[in-house]
Structures are given as structure tokens and as C-alpha cells.
Amino acid sequence: MAMNMEAEIRELKRRVGELEGSFGFLTQQIKGVHRDLLAFQAKTEQQLDKIDGRLDRVDGGLKRLRDDMPGIVGGAMREANRERRKSRKSE
Q1: Between the CA of residue 22 and those of 9, 33, 73, what are the distances in Å?
Q2: What is the DSSP string of 24-74?
Q3: pLDDT in tens, 11-39
């Protein structure tokens, strides 16, 4: 009976050791994945910040263009009218 108990204890210790080894391996894998995710997140945030900056510049340019558009169109219309008057006078 004592030999049976000792054998069972040894078997349990072996199985616990295997479980601990597997748990340690999985813990290291999860830590690695977590580290990779944090790096990916930081890189993604940097890229999004760059894109946000570019979009802000585009938005500013569009707003300036919208403000300048009446003058641009007005100037083009005045120039076209001048050309039209010149061509009528020369006819």
C-alpha cells in the first residue's frame, strides 16, 4: 500500500510538473503576443497621427480655396469679359 501511495505521489508530481511547464510556456507566449500588440498599437497610433496631420492640412487648404473661390471666379469672369469686348471691337 505504501508503495502504491509513493507511486501515485510521484505520478501526481510528474503531472503537476508537466502542467507547470505547459503553463510557463503559454505564459511566455502570451507575454510575447502582448508585447507585439503594444508595439503594433504604438505604430498604428503614430501612423494615424501623421494621417490626421495631413488631413488637417488638406482641410485647411480646402477652406482657403473656398474663401478664395469667389475672387478666382470673379477674376476669370472679368478676364473673359475683357477678351470678349476686345474681340468685338476688332470685328
Answers
A1: 20, 16, 73
A2: HHHHHHHHHHHHHHHHHHHHHHHHHHHHHHHHHHHHHHHHHHHHHHHHHHH
A3: 999 999 999 989 999 999 999 999 999 99
pLDDT tens per residue across span 68-79: 999 999 999 999
Read off the C-alpha cell for 24. 510557463
Cell numbers for 53, please give them: 496631420
Number of H helices and E strands in the chain, helices first, is 1, 0
Residue 52: is it exposed, middle or buried by C-beta count within 10 angstroms (0-12/13-18/19+)? Answer: exposed
Torsion from C-alpha of 68, 71, 72, 73, nearest 10 degrees:
120
Q: What angle (nearest 5°) sits at the alpha carbon of residue 10, between those of residues 16 and 29?
A: 20
